[in-house]
Amino acid sequence: MKANRKNREKLPPHPMDSLLRSERLPHIWCPGCGIGTVFGSIMAAIQKSGYNLDKIAVVSGIGCTARMAGYIRLDSFHTTHGRAIPFATGLKLAKPETKVLVISGDGDLLAIGGNHFIHAARRNIDITVICVNNLTYGMTGGQSAPSTPFGARTTTSITGCPEEPFNFCYLASACGAVYVARWTSLHIRRLTNSITEAMQKRGFSFIEILTPCPTSFGRRNKTGNALETLKFYHERTVSRNDIDPKEAPVDFGSKIVVGKFVDMERPTFMDNYQYMCKNQVGNRPALGETITPERQVT
Amino acid sequence: MADKAILTGTYFMNGDYACCEGALAAGCRFFAGYPITPATEIAERMSRRLAELDGIFIQMEDELASMAAILGASWGGVKAMTSTSGPGFSLMMENIGLGICTETPCVVCNVQRAGPSTGLPTLVGQGDMMQARWGSHGHYEIIALAPSSPQEMFDFTVRAFNLSEQYRTPVIIMADEVVGHMTERVVIPRKEEIEVVARRKPDVPPGDYLPYRPDKDGIAPMANCGDGYRIHITGLTHNERGYPGMDAETQGQMVNRLIQKIAGNRDKIEQTNTMYLDDAEIVVVAYGISARSAKYAVYEARAGGIRAGLIKLDTVWPFPETLIRDIAVRVRALIMPEINAGQMVLELERCAGGACPVHLVSHLGGSVIHPDAILDAIENAGRSKVMKNKKPPVGRASRLSHKRRR
Question: Which of A60, A118, B265, B351 has its CB surrounded by the most CB atoms within 10 Å?
Answer without folding.
Answer: A60
